[in-house]
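F.,

This is the one I mentioned.
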C-alpha cells in the first residue's frame, strides 16, 4: 500500500512539472499577449459567420434528405390536393405505400397511411350520399387496401348494398341487363348490359345468371377488339376495348389471347414504320410509329418517330439553303408536330429563320447598283479560289462558299449559273476521291455540295446509293468488332443520305439486336 501511495505522489509531481513547463511555453510563444487573444477572438468570430452563412448547405451535405422523407412530402401534397390514388403511382396512397416498403415501422409513415385511409372513407361516404355508387366502391377499395378500420368499411358497404336494393330488385336489374344485351348495347352507358350486370354482382357476387351474361358480353367485346386489330388504323380502338374488358373482369378467359394478338399487331405496325423509314417514306413511317405509341409506350417506336422528325428537320434546313422556303416550312411543321422539343428540330427552325431573314434583308435593303457591286466582288473571289483549285476548302473561302453567297444574292443571274456549271465537276470529283479513300464524312460534304450545285443531276441518285452502301459496309465491319456506337452512326448516315437503300433494313435489324 505504501508503495502505491509513493507512486501516486510521484505521478502528481510529474504532472505538475509538465503543466508548469506548458505554461512557460505558452508565455514564451506569445499566446498570452492581448494581441494573441484578439486574433483568437477574430478567428472565433469569422468561424461563427461562416457557420451562420453555410449552416444549411453544410447540413444538407452532412444529412441528405432521405428517400422516405421525399415520398412522405410528395404524398402529403397529393393528399392535400385530393389525389388519394392514381394509376401512375402519384397518388397519396401509392406514395405512402412506397415509403412503407422502405421503412414499415416508421411512425410518420403509419400515420400518413392512416390519414389517407380516413380520407378514402370520407370520400366513400360523400359518394354514397350523392348516389355515385361506382365512386363509392372505388373509395372503399382504396380504404380496404390501406387497412382502414374494417368496422367503418363494412358499415359503408352495407349502406351501399341497401341503397342499391332500394333502387331496384336484382331481378329487375337482370331483366334490364339482358334486354340491353339483346339489343347489342354492351358498354355504352349506365343502362347498358355490362354496367347492369356489375350492379347485380355487387349485390349478389355469386349470381350465376349475371356471371354468365357478363362473360358472354365480354366475349363479344373481345371479338370486336380482335376484328379491330385486323383493320388499318384501329389498333387504338382495339386496345381501348380490351381495357374495358379488363376493367369488368381482369381474369376473363379470352383476355390473354386477345392481348397477345394486339401485341403482335403492334410489333408488325412498328416494323412497317421501320421499313417505311428505311425507304424514305417519312409520312408513312410517322403514321405507323404514332399509332403504336398511341396504344403503349414503345422505345423502338419512340426512337423511330424521333428519327423521322430529325430527317424532316434536316430536309427543312436543306430546302431553306436552296431558298425553297415554302417546302422548308412544310417539312419543319411536320418535324415540330412529331417532336417539338427535339434539339435538332429546334435548331433547324432557328436555321431556317436565319436564312429567311438573311434572304429578306438582301431583297429589301440593297439597291440594284449595290447588289451588282457585291455580286461582282463575290464572282471575282470565286474565280480566285478556282485559280487556286480551292473548290471546297478552306471553309468560308472556297469557290463553293463564294458561289453560295453569290447564289443567295442573285440566284437567277447567268453568271452565277455559269459558275455552278464550273464548280459542279469539282464537287463530283471530290466526292469520288474521298469515297475511294473511305473518307466518308468528307465524301458526304462533297455530295451535299454537288446536290446544291446541280439538284437535277441524274447521277446524284447513284452517288447517294453508293455512299450509303459504303457507310453500311463500314458500319457492318465495325459492328462485327463490337463497336455498336459507330454502327448506329453509320446507320443514321445511310438513312440520311439514301433512305431507300435496300441494305438499310437488314443492317437496322442487326444494330437493334446488338443493342438488346
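My design for it:
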Amino acid at each position: 500500500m505504501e508503495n502505491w501511495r509513493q507512486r501516486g505522489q510521484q505521478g502528481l509531481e510529474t504532472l505538475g512539472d509538465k503543466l508548469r513547463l506548458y505554461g512557460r511555453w505558452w508565455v514564451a510563444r506569445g499566446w498570452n499577449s492581448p494581441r494573441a487573444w484578439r486574433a483568437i477572438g477574430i478567428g472565433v468570430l469569422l468561424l461563427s459567420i461562416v457557420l451562420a452563412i453555410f449552416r444549411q448547405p453544410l447540413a444538407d451535405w452532412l444529412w441528405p434528405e432521405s428517400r422516405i422523407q421525399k415520398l412522405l412530402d410528395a404524398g402529403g401534397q397529393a393528399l392535400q390536393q385530393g389525389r388519394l390514388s392514381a394509376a401512375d403511382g402519384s397518388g397519396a396512397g401509392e406514395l405512402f405505400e412506397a415509403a412503407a416498403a422502405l421503412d414499415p415501422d416508421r411512425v410518420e409513415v403509419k400515420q400518413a397511411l392512416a390519414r389517407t385511409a380516413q380520407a378514402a372513407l370520407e370520400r366513400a361516404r360523400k359518394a354514397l350520399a350523392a348516389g355515385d355508387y361506382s365512386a363509392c366502391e372505388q373509395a372503399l377499395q382504396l380504404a380496404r387496401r390501406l387497412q382502414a378500420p374494417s368496422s367503418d368499411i363494412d358499415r359503408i358497404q352495407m349502406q351501399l348494398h341497401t341503397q342499391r336494393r332500394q333502387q331496384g330488385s336484382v331481378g329487375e336489374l337482370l331483366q334490364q341487363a339482358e334486354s340491353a344485351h339483346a339489343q347489342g348495347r354492351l358498354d355504352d352507358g349506365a343502362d347498358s348490359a355490362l354496367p347492369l350486370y356489375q350492379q347485380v354482382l355487387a349485390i349478389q357476387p355469386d349470381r350465376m345468371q349475371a356471371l354468365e351474361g357478363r362473360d358472354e358480353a365480354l366475349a363479344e367485346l373481345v371479338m370486336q377488339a380482335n376484328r379491330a386489330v385486323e383493320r388499318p388504323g384501329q389498333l387504338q380502338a382495339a386496345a381501348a376495348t380490351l381495357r374495358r374488358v379488363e376493367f369488368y373482369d381482369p381474369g376473363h378467359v379470352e383476355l390473354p389471347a386477345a392481348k397477345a394478338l394486339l401485341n403482335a399487331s403492334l410489333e408488325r405496325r412498328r416494323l412497317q414504320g421501320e421499313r417505311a423509314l428505311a425507304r424514305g417514306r417519312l409520312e408513312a413511317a410517322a403514321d405507323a410509329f404514332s399509332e403504336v405509341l398511341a396504344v403503349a409506350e414503345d422505345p423502338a417506336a419512340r426512337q423511330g418517330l424521333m428519327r423521322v422528325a430529325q430527317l424532316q428537320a434536316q430536309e427543312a434546313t436543306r430546302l431553306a439553303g436552296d431558298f425553297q422556303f415554302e417546302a422548308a416550312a412544310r417539312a419543319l411543321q411536320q418535324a415540330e408536330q412529331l417532336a417539338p422539343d427535339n434539339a435538332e428540330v429546334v435548331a433547324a427552325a432557328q436555321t431556317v429563320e436565319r436564312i429567311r431573314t438573311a434572304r429578306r434583308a438582301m431583297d429589301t435593303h440593297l439597291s440594284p447598283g449595290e447588289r451588282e457591286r457585291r455580286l461582282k466582288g463575290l464572282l471575282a473571289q470565286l474565280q480566285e479560289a478556282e485559280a487556286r483549285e480551292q473548290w471546297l476548302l478552306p471553309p468560308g473561302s472556297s469557290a463553293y462558299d463564294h458561289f453560295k453567297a453569290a447564289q443567295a444574292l442573285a440566284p437567277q443571274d447567268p453568271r452565277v449559273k455559269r459558275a455552278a456549271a464550273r464548280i459542279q465537276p469539282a464537287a463530283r470529283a471530290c466526292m469520288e476521291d474521298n469515297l475511294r479513300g473511305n473518307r466518308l464524312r468528307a465524301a458526304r460534304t462533297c455530295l451535299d455540295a454537288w446536290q446544291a450545285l446541280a439538284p437535277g443531276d441524274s447521277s446524284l441518285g447513284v452517288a447517294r446509293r453508293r455512299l450509303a452502301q459504303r457507310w453500311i459496309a463500314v458500319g457492318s465491319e465495325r459492328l462485327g468488332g463490337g463497336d455498336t456506337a459507330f454502327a448506329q452512326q453509320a446507320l443514321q448516315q445511310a438513312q440520311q443520305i439514301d433512305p431507300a437503300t435496300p441494305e438499310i433494313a437488314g443492317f437496322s435489324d442487326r444494330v437493334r439486336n446488338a443493342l438488346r
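The longest helix spans residues 2-28.

Talk soon.
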